[in-house]
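Exercise 7. Given the components listed, write out the predicted structure of the assembled complex. Treat all entries as one system.
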Amino acid sequence: MSVRASVSDLDRLPLPEGRADAEGGEAKVTGSAWKLAAYVFLENRLAVVGLGVVVFMFLFCFAGPFIYHTDQINTDIANLTQAPGAGHPLGTDNVGYDVLGRLMVGGQTSLEIGIIAALLATTFGVLWGAIAGFVGGWVDQVMMRVVDSMLAIPTLFLLLVLAAMFVTSLPMLIFIVALVAWLVPARLIRGETLSLRSREYVDAVRVMGGSDLRIVLRHIIPNTIGTIMVNATFQVADAILLIAALSFLGLGVPPPATNWGAMLSDGVSYTYAGYWWLIYPAGLAIVITVVAFNLIGDAMRDAFEVRLQRR
Amino acid sequence: MTGFLVRRLGQSAIVVLGVTVITFVLTKLLPGGVARAILGPRASAVAMAQFNHDNGLDLPAWQQYFFYLGQLLHGNLGFSYHLNQSVVQLLQDHLPKTLILLTISTLIALAIAIPLGMMQAVRRNKLEDYFFTSLSFALYSMPPFWLALILIIVFAVNLNLLPPEGPQGAVSTYLDPGKIAALVLPVMSLALVTIALFSRYMRSSMLDNLVQDYVRTARAKGVSTTGVLYGHVLRNALIPIVTLLGLSLPGIFSGALITEAIFNYPGMGLLFWNSSQTRDYPVLLGVTLIVAVATVVGNLLADVFYAVVDPRVRVAA
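Answer.
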């Protein structure tokens, strides 16, 4: 989202303390730029924690159901909204699904949608931004005014309109999320392309007879890889939040499929009954996952910044 | 300055025009078109053709667009067949309620975030700084509707202190002593997220200014720490916050949509959400247009303010 991008920009500015120590510390490391970036990334303890949490979440959601068997298709009317206890460590929900098992299944959808939507949005946004920035002139003007106009509509409003109109299936939902998420990467990459296209190596490719397409795909886009990867990580976090909000507002995927947001949506009616296990686990799962992706994104930004400084 | 203003106004006008194109294209993309959406899934082909003819929907697309644009310029945002009211009427009823919510929560957020960010910058990398940085990081990563739910559970269900529903009825009564309690939870859930964002910005902005040469000059002249902090650093650090206020308008609108939906607060966001449930397209597109225009105007004002306060912006642009 646009706000996120600007926060990142501010964080980029040099800090008076701390940062300098980090740079002095890794001067001993030699090797490729990627190795250096990986080193700086791993130096950041919070990032390693974030990575660990993401790996854990994937294991929990995708491998968990093989160890912890629950029926997530047939409802169990005899055991509705049972409090956590023997047999159901996190209780059961309003139609008798085991909440712990539901967290795993719901997490699969949340993570899948988040990652696929982020990939789609990033790919499209990067191509759009790189082409606009490279071609320039009125093409750039038109392409970027499209981005401006779409960014002027608050994300959730645009998303709800599109969802009310078109969402009937999971692939459509992913597509719609990507449709509102590609704008920020497009703007970021266009900015970088503007400065990259006047570099000597672009002239060199041209002199050697390389086509414009080759310059954009083989030279400009690979040089923005830092921005792309950092933004893609934040995009995953944003997409998970967006899907959750959309499902919570009742425009998500139809049952028995679920995701963390939809679980919360189902649990809301029981707020007054005191069924906390319908509210806290799913919400915590979202927060932990999003914090983890944000930590990774922050650390990657630092890592790639160092790479650029050393060149 | 005039050149900057003209250029910036022109850009904004183009973006607003772009938004009208988007809302227009969306009506064209409706499955079955506007006729299907309004007449229902079982309308006959004849009835749909008649509807299209009556409403000029059988004309070429560009003619329809200019007709639509003309209607907008005359203040006609469409008619909700579902609520049997014009969209403008609906907005007159709901918009003031949203504005109250947004104004109060944003003012509270600023009043807390600015001193908080300052404190964090001054005490950077100390315990307090780490604590509030982690807190704002968590708030920022939290789904806003979940935060609102927790507030309801704690303050309305467990402690039974505050009503779980937003105020109802005429907007003029919202600040009455008897009703103001109903505003607390919606305002709080909206403000907490904004505080997290603003204090992060304020902290970075203060840190940027603390290392500037003018700080060293002031200190060398013998200005006290408090004097430098409030007289010089704070004033300069506040400038980006104004821009941030303009830029975060879309985020605040989205937040209001969720807050209103959860607390059944009868503002524009709730209207929009209900319309999305009933697929009431004229309302959806009308409200979308209004929030988009508000966003563009907000950005414009922030930019102009920035240019007035900071001459460097004018020269660079």
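Discussion: Confidence is low (pLDDT under 50) at residues 1-28, 307-311 of chain A. DSSP finds 14 helices and no strands in chain A.
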